[in-house]
Amino acid sequence: MSAAARLHAFYHVRSEPAAIEARARALAVEQSVEMPLAAIEEPSVLSDIVGRLDGIADLGAGMFEVRIAIAASTIGVDAAQLFNMLFGNSSLQDDVVLHDVELPEDIGRAFGGPRHGIAGIRERAGIHGRALTCSALKPQGLAPARLADLAARFASGGLDFVKDDHGLADQFFSRFADRVPLCAAAVRGTATRYIPSLSGDLETMRRQIALACNEGVDTVMAAPMLVGPSNFAALVRAFPDIVFFAHPALGGAARIAPPLLGKLFRLMGADVVIFPTYGGRFGYTPDTCRALAAMARGDLLGLHPSLPAPAGGIALDRVPEILDFYGVDTMLLIGGSLLLARERLSDEAAAFTRTVAAHVYR
Amino acid sequence: MSAAARLHAFYHVRSEPAAIEARARALAVEQSVEMPLAAIEEPSVLSDIVGRLDGIADLGAGMFEVRIAIAASTIGVDAAQLFNMLFGNSSLQDDVVLHDVELPEDIGRAFGGPRHGIAGIRERAGIHGRALTCSALKPQGLAPARLADLAARFASGGLDFVKDDHGLADQFFSRFADRVPLCAAAVRGTATRYIPSLSGDLETMRRQIALACNEGVDTVMAAPMLVGPSNFAALVRAFPDIVFFAHPALGGAARIAPPLLGKLFRLMGADVVIFPTYGGRFGYTPDTCRALAAMARGDLLGLHPSLPAPAGGIALDRVPEILDFYGVDTMLLIGGSLLLARERLSDEAAAFTRTVAAHVYR
Questions:
Q1: CA of A73 to nearest chain B CA: how many angstroms apart?
Q2: A152 and A101: one domain?
Q3: Is residue B35 less than 8 Å (CB to CB) from chain A?
Q4: What is the nearest CA distance from B329 to chain A, expressed in angstroms?
Q5: Which residues pair with A240 in a beta bridge?
Q6: How many independent structural domains does chain A possess?
Q7: By residue range, what is the domain housing residue A27?
């Protein structure tokens, strides 16, 4: 990491016009040395470590964009420290949103990004020229055999991926060690991949991946903001053959701009970035979703692109519109609305599969 | 964990009056099964797992308090899963704030809370009848020997605790393995305790604690929202002799009500809960701070009380006011304003020490 490398963080700050410059300078200090500059004796700290205010733009309506250059040396290669230096203390101030960050190439190389990315996922699944499909095993509270039955029915409908609901942890009603072998067995011999959801501390998650691998699983999911960014990144490093889905739980949309999760989860190594799409239950706008998908799979420091997986309330009749919006390098994740079909679940899953396969992109 | 036990989560939701009941019901579903209730076939899931809407109160000005009973069985004993079920998906919706949670006794027993708490900290330090004092080693960018020099000067001023700034991770300019032995040595033979800040993934933090223990350190700090709540809890379980400080970085105050961190960090085992006080840089009100301190050290499921540590811009001349406000079971954390004294640092630290020791509580 070059000593001079800087990240460029963009914050949206609510302020009176007369106060914004002082507020911006305070933000630069808060996100770097967090102390009065007058108390710093070392010239090198002032020049190389203190956050540098690079610009203020008036966004109108009392909002300003503040651009701060953060020394890459304060982050090193630790993912949690990246979040700490971008928004650690400022997340406690309610006048500021972390809007975006431009990363130096060193950071991209150091973190590594997705190990498989879109091309790797397609290669493994043997799927080209169409979007990918996914659904979720839920509700939590079902016994492992019932979850496995759902998995089998999704598989018979031809879905590419069936993931644990992110609410499935290691509860007594469906222990990880009980449900993963059953769900993996339920899709065995089909083209469907089962994706267990990891939970707990790092050691627990390592054991969960080892257990899943023993059952032939090669793809898992975790929520970086729940498991801790450094632990997510540690799993990606420790299991290079595994494809990782990132779930946005606890992502705090209103304070960390949603599109940024596409970039940061990718940097940490997520091959698939799940997010709530516009028109669903989460109130994201089409522009927000377009930006998130672009951050997940657009050019970024030479890293593999991540596959964006819109979710959160997609009904089958919206699939053509969603596909046109996101394009072919997309995984559609439909959960509850397939489960509404109940005894017709396999048929509904098959209709989902057919619609995605037959779609002609506008 | 009894199958019927419920947590009572309180959300503040912005809504039109006509829409609040539907919004509240949607929130109960989002934070439990996350699927259409019509797709759930099992009566036991509907009765025992789905979040139960227990009440809606109009707070005025378009805000409502929504009370939802969440099944304790969906959480088990995993700290990240606690956050997931309280606010995982809803953190992505910008009309809702997690305001409070009432926990069943089972959860308290299962998590265990602080292993030492206020009494344990006082016993170890031999300090009774006065508040405790703390300062921080910064700025980041200083070499380990310079940080150790600061620690020595704080110690000569008689502070009880000197902690790493939460920005100190494992950067090349002050590697954990380099600075911890030097800083620990700098306070050895004094009454001052040095508190290293942990960072990285769980295994890295375990090694950091082991290294610190070898240097005679018995107290450490970590930010639960950065390291992942489950990993913080895992460290507390793995190192029962260590006192843990919890730093609020990435706590996202505007979406998770600040006082709640006092309760949740305590539940996970933090002996000391650091938070930004009113009148400093963070805009918390006195009511917010009073509530946070009450959650940290008031009655909670029979758990040890945590020591509240107000911080974030306290100047020496505010110490009497702050002590009167928080009372004697408090740790005052003053960083930047002591460092402003520069060559007079030890004297300023000694003045801080004297002021706290001599304070007569109103």
A1: 7
A2: no
A3: yes
A4: 24
A5: none
A6: 2
A7: 6-111
Angle between helices B286-297 and B319-326 (to 10 degrees): 50
Check: CB of residue A178 under 8 Å from CB of residue A207: no
AA identity, residue A287: D
**Closest of A276, A250, A265, A98 to residue A167, by C-alpha:** A250
Same domain flag for A216 and A332: yes
| Inter-chain CB proximity B228 and A223 less than 8 Å | no
Q: Are A174 and A140 in contact (CB under 8 A)?
A: yes
Q: Taking chain B, what is the end-to-end CA distance rounded to the nearest angstrom?
A: 44
Distance CA B356, CA A144 (A): 58
Q: Has residue A1 been placed in a domain? A: no
A285 in contact with B at a CB cutoff of 8 Å?
no
* Inter-chain CB proximity B172 and A1 less than 8 Å: yes
Specify whether B195 is located in the same domain as B315: yes
Same domain, B134 and B162: yes
pLDDT per residue of chain A (362 residues) written in tens, 0 to 9: 566 899 999 999 999 999 999 999 999 999 999 888 988 989 999 999 999 999 999 999 999 999 999 999 999 889 999 999 999 888 888 899 888 899 888 888 888 889 899 999 999 999 999 899 999 999 999 999 999 999 999 999 999 999 999 999 999 999 999 999 999 999 999 999 999 999 999 999 999 999 999 999 999 999 999 999 999 999 999 999 999 998 888 887 667 788 888 888 898 888 999 888 998 877 789 999 999 999 999 998 889 999 999 998 889 999 999 999 999 999 999 988 888 888 898 899 899 999 999 999 98
Nearest Cβ partner for B141 among A45, A172, A202: A45
Give the number of beta-carbon pairs within 8 Å between A and B. 302
Which residues in chain B have their CB less than 8 angstroms from residue A33's CB? 138-141, 165, 167
Helix ranges restricted to H, B243-344: 258-268, 286-297, 319-326, 336-339
**Chain A: residue whose CA lies nearest to B95:** A254
What is this structure's pTM? 0.90
